[in-house]
Amino acid sequence: MARGGVTPPPTPVDVVAPTADRPRPVRAAVLAAPPTRKPKAGEKVCGECGEPNRPARNFCARCGVSLAEAQVVKTPWWRKVIPHRRHRVIEIGGRPGRQGVRPNAGAGQKLFGAIGSLFRTVMKVGGVLILVGGLVYGGYSPFRDWVNKKFTTAQDKISNKVHREYDPVRAVQTTASAQDPKHAGTMADDGYNNTYWQAPSDKGAMPELTLTFQHPVTLNRMIVQIGAADAFNKTDRPSVLHLVYPNGTGEDVQLKDTPDEQTVEINHGANLTSVVIQVTGFYRSAGATSVAITEIQLFGKDKESRE
Question: Which of 164, 199, 233 is a domain's end point?
Fold first, then answer.
């Protein structure tokens, strides 16, 4: 309280009226409109206006919205299987003509270019067909059964054709230049693999078999099983057979030292009424004095037996 009982008036305080918030600019709404073009693989699709943008852009080319969370167009599965053809790069100073071909290109270059283009197209189409066929084959059992049946039928036809190409040729008479009394020459082509022909092989001997046919035949193949059927290493085995034909010609057949059957080709055995099979080479066994052949089977084109 002031002197004399009088209260001094309060000191005036400046009162500032509250100011209103500064209005923020309102962004104009972007009207939904269809994109100007079809989006390509790898491009960013704006979530605001739907416009496709190149992968390198950070803001939409139409509305300016950030593309940080834009959806990226995925590459189709078929584009991954079939590589996209790259654009041709022209060297500096080059002049591309129609369809990327230089005007001064020769006819040969154009032809090779056309062939290459056709080949690439065929490969692309073939790849798609193989892929689709594999998917259908794996997921649709009726189609799989049909394919398996067709494949088996074709395989049987080819197999039958091969087997019919060469018929078994049997001799009506077999004679040997030398033989063991218990293992005659006829045992070499009797059709059994538990019998064998055995003949002396020491002192320079070269035993031979003569097979005579009922009518002319053409020999193309021979299956031979060398050695004794019950004792492979106790006798010598032929390493070379020399075939002699009635016209004076002949050929050699090389054999392997194995107890298994082995198939050899005959190249000059056409129109034969007989053949002489002579042992001219040997696989030797210690102490052996004879050579043995378990079985000889001949195959060829027997015209009369076919008829």
Answer: 164
